[in-house]
Amino acid sequence: MDQTTADLASAIGARVRQERQARRWTLARLAETAGVSRRMVVNVEQGAANPSVGTLLRISDALGVGLPALVEPPEPKALKVTRHGEGAALWTGEYGGRGVLVAGTEPPDVLELWDWTLAPGDRHVSEAHTSGTQELIQVQEGAIRLEVADQTVTLEAGDAVAFPGDVEHAYANLGPEAARFSLAVFEPGVGSGPRNEGA
């Protein structure tokens, strides 16, 4: 784990611990509510784990705070600016791609804005999100293959798509050059019920 990733893991761990303790929840209660192991909650809180986006979504939803709240310090400001290079890199691909959360809103209806880069050969599989989740993608550079349930579509620079995020889906770069796209994720009712389990 490089220093930036370690710092992010530490900040996420501190925020998870703070939110859990504010509710007077035990580690076991958070684990059960989130549908993850107690060991995973311990590792996240200690900053010892680099959990998947799916794990962080389950934990943030269980706490009712939304994923953006886990990766940014609590600041009661109407205007939240994320400067270039300051987003939270929550996914790193096998070939060098990155999924960076750059902005998000507060619960219960959470909107996330992501900046994704997929290197040639990179593929990210996402489990089903909360029921009613919607996603939007616009490709800026290169081309990606989007797989949603049993449908597949290729998107090139300038193309955009809207699709349900409450089914398993994946983004892949099968081309010879890096692909970059913006992703918006809308999750309604975060923290209001159990997370829809995917793969």
Low-confidence stretches: 194-199
- What distance separates the N and C termini? 26 Å
At CATH level 3, the topology of the largest domain is Jelly Rolls
Fraction in helix: 25-40%
CATH superfamily placement of the largest domain: Jelly Rolls
Mean pLDDT: 88
Task: Compute the CA-based radius of gyration.
Answer: 16 Å
Q: In what range is the share of β-strand residues? A: 25-35%
Give an account of the 3D structure.
- With 199 residues, the protein is of the alpha+beta class.
- It folds into two domains: 3-71, lambda repressor-like DNA-binding domains (434 Repressor (Amino-terminal Domain), Orthogonal Bundle); 88-187, Jelly Rolls (Sandwich), CATH 2.60.120.10.
- Helix content is 26%, strand content 32%.
- It has five helices and ten strands, in the order H-H-H-H-H-E-E-E-E-E-E-E-E-E-E.
- The protein has helices at residues 3-22, 27-34, 38-45, 53-63, 67-71, and strands at 88-92, 98-104, 110-118, 123-126, 134-141, 143-148, 151-156, 160-164, 169-172, 179-187.
- The strands form two sheets. Strands 1-2-3-10-5-8 form a six-stranded antiparallel beta sheet. A four-stranded antiparallel beta sheet has the order 4-9-6-7, with no helix packed on it.
- Strand 1 (88-92) and strand 2 form a beta hairpin.
- Helix 2 (27-34) packs across helix 3 and helix 2 (27-34) crosses helix 4 (53-63).
- The protein starts with a helix and ends in a 12-residue tail after the last strand.
- The relative contact order is 0.16.
- The model is unreliable at 194-199 (pLDDT under 50).
